[in-house]
Amino acid sequence: MLERVRVPPAAAAGLVAACSAGLIAIQARHVVAGEVVLESFQWVPSMGLDIALRLDGLSLLFAGLVVGIGLLVILYAHYYLSDEDRNGRFFAYLLFFMGSMLGVVTADNLLLLLVFWELTSLSSFLLIGFWRGAAEARQGARLALFVTGAGGLALLAAVLLIGDIVGSYSLGAVLAAGDLVRADPRYPLVLALVLLGAFTKSAQFPFHFWLPHAMAAPTPVSAYLHSATMVKAGIFLLMRLWPVLAGTQEWFWAVSGVGLVTMLFGAYVALFQHDLKGLLAYSTISQLGLITLLLGLGTPLAEIAAVFHVMNHAIFKASLFMSAGIIDHETGTRDMRRLSGLARHIPITATLAIVAAAAMAGVPLLNGFISKEMFFAETFELRSYWSWLMPVLATAGGLFSVAYSARFVHDVFFGGEAQDLPRQPHEPPRFMRVPVEVLVGLCLLVGLGPGLVVEPALRLAAAALLQGPLPDFALASWHGLNRPFAMSLVALAGGIALYFARRYLWALHGDQPRVASGKDLTEAFLRHLTELSAWLHRALDRGGLRLSLLALILTVLVAGWSAFIPGAPAATRPQAAAGLVGGLALAVVLLGSAATVLLHRERLLAVVSIGVIGLLVSLVFVKLSAPDLALTQLLVEVITVLLLLLTMYFLPQRSPRESSASRRLFDGLLALAAGAGSGALAFAMLRAPADSISGFYLDQAKPGGGGYNVVNVILVDFRALDTLGEITVLGIAAVAIVAILDRIQLPPRQLDWDGRAWASGQSLLLEVLSRPLLPMALLVSVYLLLRGHNLPGGGFIAGLVTGTAILVQYLAHGNDWVEARLPPHYTSVAATGIAIATLTGLAALAFDAPFLTSTFTYLSWPVVGKFEVASAMVFDLGVYVAVIGVVLSILATIGRQHDVSREL
Amino acid sequence: MESYLAIAIGILVTAGVYLVLRPRLFSILLGTTLLSYAVNLFLLASGGVLADTAPLTDRPGPWPDPLPQALVLTAIVISFGMTALVIVLALRAVSERGHDRVDASPGGADE
After folding, report:
1. CA triple A740-A743-A745, angle to 5 deg
2. Annotated domain spans of chain B
3. Which of residues 714-753 of A touch B (CB under 8 A)?
4. What does residue A44 show for φ and ψ, rounded to 5 degrees?
5. pLDDT tens digits, residue range B6-24?
6. A-chain residues near B66 (CB < 8 A)
7. Which of A304, A286, A287 is nearest to A295 (CA)?
8. How would you label A632-650 residue by residue, b for 16+ Cβ within 10 Å and e otherwise?
9. Cβ A692–B65 below 8 Å, yes or no?
10. Percent of chain A at pLDDT above 70?
């Protein structure tokens, strides 16, 4: 046995991510040179939706985070996932997310940004629910999708409003129209909707509650989506639209207020989490709140600090999540009440995690310290009566973050030996630690030499954010003994003290009654919504077709009669004389309909009488100058009657009388009203002035479509897309019929419903006559197909002729005889026909013409003479093949049931 | 001729509506077939009535309106697809429940 060489999915995913990193790096030099890289393709120009991409400093920074951390997460996940997990699916989802997120940060069109925004929500849903066997994973995924999806809807409304105000969805135009947007009376609404979108995505209070439940995802996902990148999408949006929306009182109060509350709330709650990932989730909420607060402050330096903290948080939080994943992986638990003293067993991982946690706490010489100092400095910039409050609250937030960082470090790595760990802890595989090492190394590098390592990138990003000149600033790891440093010291000392006094705080917290959580409220809302729709469904659908139909017919009657209230339009067209033929035809319609109604319980007789009406209708088509219709109707009538007779074998041959006399009377009166109404409507229409658009088709059929038969030219040329859609629908019907009849069990009927035996064997006469019939019918159908462009005929009619001829073979010789001679899968014949028609249409694209553009020319052959060749005839060939495939797959599948049921 | 056509459409609709209100799938199928005849004639009539000619532009006019004809041609073929689908649903119903009643109401208990 040859072993199949399998490429690990992680390697494939890593290759894709590395390629995108390379492509971004190639473009980056333009951005470094101060340019904005723009690329644009039209998508739906009528809606203003273009595939427009932009790479400026801000996009570059976020794109770098997305692919950089993405690469590390892929490497990490390769070791994290077990063989039982469906690795291929996981990495496919991960790449799906990476592509969507790159789209969000590089979109240059607000509608396109929204499309990618929703795609990140979807990929996040798939990744949170990756372990779909776990109920909490499914609930967490649903909750996240509900909250972020609702925010996406708000954002859609905001984007539409902005587009309406600015007159364009292009980011360049929107960024240049900031004054216009802020002066618009709809500005508060736009701002509220944008903030709804951003706050739900970035887990800001009170929409934060989905993020802790998203921790049911595999840890690489938490590290990547739910700390480093996706939850930053809301922040990114606020940064993108900062030049447009910021600078007003509304912006200041809403953004900084929500950011402040989120920062304090998240930091406080984080302290009470016992789950490692829960602690990290609430700390992420808090840190995102900090960034939002910075954005709300509105000073240019605060914006720079916000961008800087986005980077720093992504780096240290991703490494912390990865460390938490390693601990979970190696010990089998994430509960900090059980974990203890791990530093002895996994010293390297412990060191890395301690450094990262210190960065999170804002310890000097690490990256988190610098951006937090910038934040502290900015809190003094407020000029209002509560300006003293801001530094105090900021210090409080810092204090809590020190406390939860201390808890992460002390509870897990220090203290006595853990007693009841599910597994004896060891260091993880060498390369599982590499991503953590890289990230922690970055924490140190940025912390020690920020001016060298990140300042150039930060300047580029900030310039793109502010869309204006940068204020004076310099990054340094040490700014001297100043007020921010004093705040840092207070936070560090107070945080450690708070950690050691935590038991008092827990006792206080434990006594408080549990209030309804966002999750419970959302679940209850969704449950009520489901119940409401179920109730509505029960109220409207009582399990009977008749009631639904009655509602439909009565509605049509009311709506239809109301059309006559203004009075019938003046009759302007003279009536044509009907003559004896017309009277005769009307009499046949009347008699046939009456017979069908009276005999409808005698099913065989009803089929005969309805066939009479069908034949008469095709004669009416002949009289009314519609030869193509007459041919089509005639052939469809034959095939339909065959179809009904084939099924009659299995169906009851009589319908019992089931309705009461009063119900029949009611239905009859209703039917009369409907008939009188539609007859009157038809008459009014026939007498009213007519204004047709068909002059165009009559004029253009020959010069534009190359055919004299206007009906056929419309079908295969002017309206070819409709026809393509139609044969596709037919193909779907055929596939559905084959599927419905798949493994159906129909009881064999030895006798018919009157107790007579069915005829057995085949008719010799039919058998003999049918053989020469087939080649002749094929010849006729080819003739009809070829002449269709100029004379009655074409793909539909020719296909029906061929289909009928083959059906006669089935009748004369039986299934086995035919199926031994023809391909068994008629559905693939139908698919071939649809493919031919589609490819003909696609061929036009090669000549830079729109889909389904046709062309024609004249050829001159010896003997045959001069004749026309049109690409539309190839399209018609596709229609021909598709119709044959559909007709035969339907009837042959039903016919086959006869053999199946006999074998039972 | 217009009035005759309108009356024919009315008759077909009357019979069709009555039949689709019957409780058996087979009757409903007969009803929808009659309704589709009526609808096709109605569509054709929307282009006006012109007898004994054809929409072939190499022949002398007047030509009938070709657009409703193209619409009706596809409608005929589609209605065949629908008839086939409904009759197959009836087969499935017979195979699984032994009858082709369409109502799940109490009166429609399985035979």
Report:
1. 100
2. 2-49+64-102
3. 714-715, 719, 722-723, 726, 729-730, 733-734, 736-737, 740-741, 744-747
4. -120, 80
5. 999 999 999 999 999 998 8
6. 694, 697-698, 701, 710-711, 714
7. A304
8. bbbbbbbbbbbbbebbbbb
9. yes
10. 95
The DSSP result for A547-559, as a single string, is HHHHHHHHHHHHH
Hey, are the CB atoms on A627 and B54 less than 8 Å from each other?
yes
Tell me: the pLDDT tens digits for A85-140?
Answer: 888 899 999 999 999 999 999 999 999 999 999 999 999 999 999 998 889 999 99
- Best interface-test mutation with A: which of B35, B50, B67 has the largest number of A CBs within 10 A? B67
Q: Is the pLDDT of residue A713 over 80?
A: yes
Residue A186 three-state SS: coil
Distance CA B100, CA B96 (A): 10
| Distance, CA of A87 to CA of A807 (rounded, Å) | 51
Query: How many angstroms separate the CA of residue B36 from the nearest CA in chain A?
Result: 10
* pLDDT mean across residues, chain A: 88
Separation CA A255–CA A276 (nearest Å): 29
Report the alpha-carbon angle A418-A423-A428, nearest 5. Answer: 100
| Residue A635 vs residues A334, A792, A843, B69: alpha-carbon distances, Å | 73, 14, 32, 16
Largest CA distance in chain B: 63
Residue A364: asked if its preceding bond is cis (omega within 30°), the reply is no
Concatenated DSSP letters for A759-798? P-S--HHHHHHHHHHHHHHHHHHHHHHHHTTTSS--HHHH
Minimum CA–CA partner of B70 in chain A: A711
Q: Residue B3 and residue A575: Cβ atoms within 8 Å?
A: yes
Could you report the per-residue pLDDT of A466-511, keeping only the tens digit for each? 888 888 888 887 777 788 888 999 999 999 999 888 888 777 776 5
The CATH classification number of B2-49+64-102 equals 1.10.287.3510
Residue A77 CB partners (closer than 8 Å, separation 6+): A10, A90, A91, A94, A218, A220
- For residues A682 and A704, what is the distance between their CA atoms, to the nearest angstrom? 33
DSSP strand E in A21-107: where? 37-44, 49-55
User: Closest to A668 (Cβ–Cβ): which among B18, B41, B101?
Assistant: B18
Report CB contact under 8 Å: A597, B15: yes
Whether the model clears a pTM of 0.90, i.e. scores above it, the answer is no
Residues in B touching A643 (Cβ below 8 Å): 83-84, 87
Cβ-defined contact of B34 to A593 (cutoff 8 Å):
yes
Q: Which residues contact A858 (CB under 8 A, 6 or more apart)?
A: A866, A867, A868, A869
DSSP A814-857: -HHHHHTTS-S-HHHHHHHHHHHHHHHHHHHHHTT--TT---EE
Q: What pLDDT does residue A512 have?
A: 54
The angle subtended at Cα B80 by Cα B78 and Cα B85, nearest 5°, is 95
Q: Could you state, in order of their start, the residue ranges of all structural domains in chain A?
A: 132-507, 579-654, 709-751+762-904
User: What ipTM goes with this model?
Assistant: 0.94
Cross-chain residue pair A655–B27, CB shorter than 8 Å: yes
